[in-house]
Design brief:
Layout: H1 2-31, H2 48-55, H3 57-89, H4 94-109, H5 112-126, H6 132-157, H7 160-168, H8 173-184, H9 186-202, H10 205-210, H11 218-227, H12 232-277
């Protein structure tokens, strides 16, 4: 009886948490279909705000720039972060490894405002023009620690005897990397890429500091429009971005399920092969 009561309380608490998290989002989505000009009284259903967003060529350009920025920064950060995680994992000295991990984690817990201000000072000091490239470099910088953190656990789980066996058979370092290490940590690499892409897509604080005239992202544009007053076009734009993020999450879930299924099949085949040998 006590277990059933605790189970009911845990479910109720979970529902409450999700309600608090998603209620504002659904409220925003609901009023994005309002024909009125505000969020106080729903008058009638309309798609005019979505039509206005899709008909705004400047806004469409900003969306494309944001997606290109997120894709490039996630790709570069994934490559650099994966190689960095491999290098960290192969450090033999535990003290040195913990020091490097600590330096990596500092960037994860540092406030975005501090990171953005620091990068702005750096770009100004070296005379680097603010714009697309400054934002891209900044996004790569704060995404690398995320990728490292996602890849390292997979490196820890990897069977090291496979690396030793490959080297004993004469495999080169590049062959060990491409045929053993990378396939073993692919789930972590994909997780790091999706996390980096998501962080880059919705980042505001760092981007606000390092962006220049002539370049903007969706997050900065929404902030700029919100400062000018309440517009239901902001609701429509935010709804579209939420749906896009939801599609990414669902896609990532199915990729994870597919990888888990392949891993289970591979393990089953290995167990069957061992049984035949025995």
């Amino acid at each position: 009886m006590k277990l059933e009561k605790n189970h009911w309380l845990s479910n109720a608490y979970l529902v409450f948490v999700f309600a608090v998290l998603y209620a504002p989002i659904f409220y925003l989505i609901y009023y994005s279909f309002n024909s009125g000009g505000g969020m106080n009284d729903f008058q009638s259903f309309t798609l005019e705000h979505y039509q206005a967003v899709l008909g705004d060529t400047r806004l469409i350009g900003i969306v494309i720039d944001t997606l290109v920025l997120a894709l490039l920064s996630a790709l570069c950060a994934t490559i650099i972060g994966t190689l960095g995680a491999i290098m960290i994992d192969f450090i033999r000295s535990n003290r040195r490894k913990q020091f490097v991990l600590g330096m990596n984690n500092i960037l994860l817990v540092s406030p975005d405002v501090i990171i953005g201000a620091s990068l702005l000072i750096l770009f100004t000091f070296i005379g680097f023009k603010l714009g697309f490239w400054s934002v891209l470099l900044s996004h790569i910088a704060f995404n690398i620690p995320i990728v490292v953190l996602m890849v390292l656990p997979k490196l820890t789980e990897m069977n090291r005897s496979m690396i030793t066996a490959a080297r004993d058979l004469g495999a080169t370092s590049s062959q060990v990397l491409t045929r053993i290490i990378l396939p073993s940590i692919t789930p972590g690499i994909l997780s790091g890429f999706f996390m980096a892409f998501t962080y880059s897509l919705d980042d505001f604080a760092v981007t606000f500091f390092v962006t220049g005239n002539g370049f903007s992202t969706i997050a900065v544009e929404i902030y700029s429009r919100a400062r000018q007053g309440i517009s239901l076009q902001i609701n429509a734009l935010s709804t579209l971005m939420f749906l896009f993020s939801l599609i990414l999450v669902i896609g990532y879930y199915f990729i994870q399920q597919y990888q888990a299924k392949r891993l289970n099949q591979k393990n089953a085949e290995n167990d069957l092969a061992k049984g035949v040998v025995l």
